[in-house]
Amino acid sequence: MPTAHTRLIAGACLVFVTSLSGCSSHTFFAANKLEPFHFGDILRLHTFAGIFLSSQPKPDDFRQAQKAGIKTIVSLRLPGEVADFDEPALITELGMTYYNVGFDDFATLDEEVLDRARALLNRHNEKPILIHSASANRVGAIWLAYRAIDHHVPYDQALAEAKEVGLRSPAYEQVVRRYVQQQL
User: Fold this and answer.
1) Coil vs helix vs strand at 54
2) What is the predicted pLDDT for the residue at 147?
3) Is residue 23 part of a domain?
4) pLDDT at position 149, please?
5) DSSP for 59-98?
């Protein structure tokens, strides 16, 4: 079985080959099925159509992501929540685009946060994109709204995907359920 490092190298090569052929680099990441993915030391990582959904990457994971063709990072953590390193500065230094759409509990997961996160996930020119939170719990909440509203996936299927990605909080699910009902 190939190691994570081998898969990363293969992915980077495919990105390079598709860019040489005139295709956009996100062609490699275009599978329209939610799948587990592995690179670096990221504990939870899934991919779907140019979107990577993850728990907190370490600095070396961001470096590997940049080399593999990731263009955009969206953090769902509050500014300053990552104490180990300056994530925005690192992302900027690596030449990737950084967005923060941070929230830390169900009270701060509001319509504005959900709208902003969904809008970023829908920006095809920003892909491949990596969206993360500490454990992927917050990522799962955003994924639930995105799949149910933007992809018209039945709510129960979107919820199952969100839990696979990392959603554990019943409070987040309740907030997103109300939001989805208002949007549809």
Assistant:
1) strand
2) 98
3) no
4) 98
5) HHHHHHHHHTT--EEEE-SPTT---SS-HHHHHHHTT-EE
Q: What is the mean pLDDT of residues 15-23?
A: 34
Give the pair of three-digit tokens for residue 144: 């639930």
Nearest to 127 by CA among 31, 44, 10, 13: 31
Task: Name the pTM for this structure.
Answer: 0.84
State the total domains in the chain.
1
86 token code pair: 């300056």
- The least confident of 19-28, 35-44, 126-135 is 19-28
Q: Which of 24-33, 149-158, 166-175 has the lowest mean pLDDT?
A: 24-33
Residue 13 lies in a domain: no
CB 136 within 8 A of CB 74: no
Q: The domain containing residue 160 runs over which residues?
A: 29-183
Contacts with 44 (C-beta within 8 Å, 6 or more apart), sequence order = 53, 54, 55, 135, 136, 165, 166
Q: Which residues contact 170 (CB under 8 A, 6 or more apart)?
A: none
> In CATH, what number is assigned to the domain containing residue 73?
3.90.190.10
Within a domain: 21: no
Residues in the chain: 184
pLDDT at residue 23 greater than cutoff 70: no
Residue 56, in any domain of the structure: yes
> How high is the mean pLDDT of the chain?
87
